[in-house]
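testing teh design pipeline on a random one, pls ignore if ur not involved
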């Protein structure tokens, strides 16, 4: 009986690692996620499509693994092209290397960013990866972050900035499972705040 449970735990742990890797791969493909986002109601608030997987192994309780990207959105009363011109400066101020930029679709971002701090602030200011007896895992683990920003025209004289961010973390010095980190929406909102500052006002 004990051997069966131990084997079930072993299989569960292996399966969780496998699914986590798959979830991470899906989360890192943020361009399709952005394209698949849907707007609801008159507010135009964009929401990500959550991904959930339930694991059921004989001898153990079902385990639900889920990932939901954080989404920040803000409207600007200026043309989309004007907002778009601020984005490289926004990412430079955040010290996020730009690995993807498409002027045609007005998308910019980095799908495999591994920061320890952003604007001098520790990662726990931006994401929640859980805690252990040493503190916040966001500060202790190696974080891989995906962040993408899209500027979209609402009308000829207004635009919407949508930033999607997702992150995973793994122990730095020992082997262990990666964990999904929940966004606190701080970074997503900061992108729009910096764009507002660069445009010289509030919108």
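output:
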């Amino acid at each position: 009986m004990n051997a069966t449970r131990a084997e079930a735990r072993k299989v569960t742990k292996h399966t969780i690692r496998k699914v986590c890797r798959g979830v991470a791969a899906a989360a890192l493909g943020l361009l399709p996620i952005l394209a698949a986002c849907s707007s609801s109601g008159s507010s135009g608030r964009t929401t990500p499509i959550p991904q959930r997987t339930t694991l059921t192994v004989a001898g153990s309780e079902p385990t639900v693994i889920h990932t939901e990207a954080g989404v920040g959105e803000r409207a600007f009363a200026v043309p989309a092209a004007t907002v778009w011109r601020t984005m490289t400066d926004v990412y430079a101020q955040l010290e996020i290397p730009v690995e993807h930029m498409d002027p045609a679709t007005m998308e910019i971002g980095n799908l495999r960013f591994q920061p320890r701090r952003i604007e001098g602030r520790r990662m726990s200011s931006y994401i929640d990866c859980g805690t252990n007896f040493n503190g916040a895992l966001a500060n202790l683990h190696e974080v891989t972050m995906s962040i993408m920003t899209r500027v979209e025209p609402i009308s000829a004289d207004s635009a919407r900035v949508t930033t999607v961010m997702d992150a995973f973390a793994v122990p730095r010095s020992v082997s262990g499972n990666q964990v999904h980190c929940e966004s606190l929406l701080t970074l997503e909102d900061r992108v729009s705040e910096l764009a507002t500052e660069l445009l010289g006002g509030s919108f």
